Amino acid sequence: MADEHALGQHSGTFFVVRGPVEPGDKRGRELGFPTANIALRNQSGQVGDGVWAGWAERADGTHVAAAVSVGRRPTYYGADGYRLVEAHLLDFKGDLYGETLTVWLGAHLREQQKYNSGEELIEALDRDVAATRKWIEENPASQLPDLGTPPPDGEVRRLG
Ligand SMILES: Cc1cc2nc3c(=O)[nH]c(=O)nc-3n(C[C@H](O)[C@H](O)[C@H](O)COP(=O)(O)O)c2cc1C
C-alpha cells in the first residue's frame, strides 16, 4: 500500500496564483535576486503574507523552482505598499515580462520582515532559497495536483 507520508512534510495544500509578469522596480536584480512580479487582484485573498517555497509554471508548461514572497515588501514600502506576489526563480536566467506565469505556493517558510539593510534582506533570501531547494527535493513538480480550469489572473486559488 502506498505510504501517505511518502510526499514528505508537505501538508497537501497549495495556493496557486496566475497572471502576466509585470515589470518590478528592478531592485531585485541589484540584490542578486530578480523576481517575476504578479499583481494580486483580490487584496484580501485567501493567502496570508509571507515567504513560500514553491514552483513557477511557465507558459510552455515547464516548471522552475521558486522562492516566493507574498506581501507588501515592508523593508522598502512600510505598511502602505500594495500586496503582490514576487517569485524568484532558482537557477533561471531570462526575460519573463509579459509571460503568464502560474505560481504554486507549497510550504510557508516565514513571515514578511522589515530588514534594516539590503544586506540583511540578502541573507534572508539566501536562507529562503536554501529552504526552497530542500522542499523541492521532497515535492517535485511531477507531484503537483491537477489545477483544472486555471483561476482568473491575479486571484488566489486554494487546492487541497
Ligand atoms: C523569497 C523572497 C523573500 C522576500 N522577503 C521579503 C521580506 O521579508 N521583507 C521585504 O521587505 N521584502 C521581501 N522580499 C521582497 C524584496 O524586497 C523585493 O523582491 C525586492 O525589493 C525587489 O523588488 P522588485 O522586484 O520590485 O525589484 C522578498 C522577496 C523574495 C523573492
Description:
The chain is α+β, with helices and mostly antiparallel strands. It has one domain: Beta Barrel (Elongation Factor Tu (Ef-tu), domain 3). It contains 3 helices and 7 strands, in the order βαβββαββαβ. Strands 2-5-4-3-6-1-7 form a 7-stranded antiparallel beta sheet. Strand 3 and strand 4 form a beta hairpin. The N terminus is likely disordered. The protein binds flavin mononucleotide. Flavin mononucleotide (FMN) binds next to helix 1, strand 4, helix 2, strand 5 and helix 3. Flavin mononucleotide binds next to helix 1, strand 4, helix 2, strand 5 and helix 3.
Name the CATH class. Answer: Mainly Beta
Terminal CA distance reads 22 Å
Beta strand count: 7
Q: How would you sum up the global shape? A: globular
| CATH architectural label | Beta Barrel
Main sheet: which strands, in order across? 2-5-4-3-6-1-7
**Ligand set:** flavin mononucleotide
The CATH topology annotation reads as Elongation Factor Tu (Ef-tu), domain 3
| Elements, N to C (H/E) | EHEEEHEEHE
What is the count of structural domains? Answer: 1
Question: Percent helix among the residues?
Answer: 10-25%
